[in-house]
Write a structure and sequence with these properties.
Elements (H helix, E strand, L loop, with lengths): L2 H7 L2 E7 L6 H10 L9 H7 L5 H11 L6 H17 L2 E8 L1 H5 L5 H19 L2 E9 L4 H11 L8 E5 L11 H9 L3 E6 L5 H9 L5 E4 L7 H9 L4 E3 L1 H6 L11 H6 L4 E3 L4 H4 L3 H12 L3 H13 L5 H26 L1
Parallel strand pairs: 1-2, 2-3, 3-4, 4-5, 5-6, 6-7, 7-8
This protein binds adenine and zinc ion.
Adenine binds next to helix 4.
Length: 345
């Protein structure tokens, strides 16, 4: 069994996907036409050519521009349905999906419009593929906390459809400590907590996310490895990291996959997972991320299986779902081993 077929065959969770970052250029142009808007790019090829980034901010500028074609509930439904279809094909059995409401409400789109479209797509994917899905509302950190508080207030009546809150967008210069109050409020209301930290920002931002915001997972966290005390803390407390290797390379946070910290994270005993971040912009979905990273870093089969198993264990699905998912994973792996042993005889 090759590493590729192991990755393709085993079940897995995606814990770091921005739904707006799954907007493929083909759909972007089709939605621009459907909504009578000027297309952000002259062609699909022109879009792909423009997707050359020197930093997170370079990407974010195009990310916000591209998502402006999303207008109606149907648009959000189509966007999420396309992602979920693709995820199911990758063997994703659980997807915890980030969305950026402020990037839409500030364009005059009602919170309910986008939430209705996204939740309708999740319900359809559950029915069609048995894929368990959930939504995590991300606050844009380049806006101030007052805006985040207002957004959370608008989200509260829909709490049954939102699993958690996160923190994303431009990182350096926007430390987690600025969002203490809104995270405290979300925790009090029973929301699960995550935050992007240590993508471009320093290890101190990861400390802040853990100690001041109380997050249960760190999104990216690659710069945590610069601080041995932080690595120790993440390992001891088993705080999962949702790592996105192709994203890190495309945004120049890491020079190449061959030197990506993912292997060092595993060697240090961290609970790392592999995810796609913004697959329409970075050239790969979950399995592409896992396969290319495993190849470039020479990950062992055991390490690959650990990454995928971690994703199920680190998910915010309820205990019963996780217990069954882990048992199914172990069973599938044992079957694959048995098959291989039989074919080697
Ligand atoms: N929003 C979408 N993708 C992001 C990323 N990689 N980092 C921060 N904010 C984001
Ligand atoms: Zn992200």
């Amino acid at each position: 069994m090759t590493t590729q077929s192991l990755i393709e065959t085993l079940p897995k969770a995606e814990l770091h996907i921005h739904i707006e970052g799954s907007l493929e250029p083909e759909m972007m142009l089709a939605l621009a036409e459907r909504n009578g808007l000027e297309a952000p790019y002259a062609s699909v090829e022109a879009a792909r050519t423009a997707y050359a980034f020197g930093s997170l901010q370079d990407f974010l500028d195009l990310y916000y521009r591209g998502m402006a074609v999303l207008q109606s509930e149907e648009d959000f439904f189509d966007l999420a349905s396309a992602y979920l279809e693709r995820a199911a094909a990758d063997g994703v059995t659980r997807a915890e999906i980030f969305f950026d409401p402020q990037a839409h409400t500030e364009r005059g789109i009602a919170f309910e419009t986008l939430l209705d479209g996204l939740t309708r797509a999740l319900a359809a994917a559950e029915k069609q593929h048995g894929l368990s899905g959930a939504l995590i509302l991300c606050f844009l950190r380049h806006l101030d906390e007052a805006d985040a508080l207002k957004t959370f207030e608008a989200a509260l009546p829909h709490r049954d459809r939102i699993l958690g809150v996160g923190l994303d967008s431009s990182e350096v210069g926007y430390p987690p400590e600025r969002f203490k109050r809104v995270f405290r409020w979300a925790a009090d209301e029973g929301f699960r907590l995550v935050a992007h930290a240590g993508e471009e920002g320093p290890p101190d931002y990861v400390w802040q996310a853990i100690d001041l915001l109380g997050v249960e997972r760190i999104d990216h966290g690659i710069r945590a490895l610069e601080d041995p005390a932080l690595v120790k803390r993440l390992a001891e407390d088993e705080i999962p990291l949702t790592v996105c290797p192709l994203s890190n390379v495309r945004l120049c946070a890491v020079e190449s996959l061959a030197v990506h910290p993912l292997k060092r994270m595993l060697d240090a005993g961290l609970v790392a997972t592999v995810n796609s971040d913004d697959p329409a912009y970075f050239g790969g979905y979950l399995n592409d991320n896992a396969i290319q990273s495993a190849d470039a870093l020479g990950l062992s089969e055991e390490q690959v299986a650990t990454l995928l198993r971690n994703s199920l264990d680190a998910s915010f699905a309820d205990e019963a779902w996780r217990t069954k998912a882990l048992a199914d994973f172990d069973k599938k792996r044992a079957e694959l081993d048995k098959k291989r042993a039989a074919s080697a005889d």
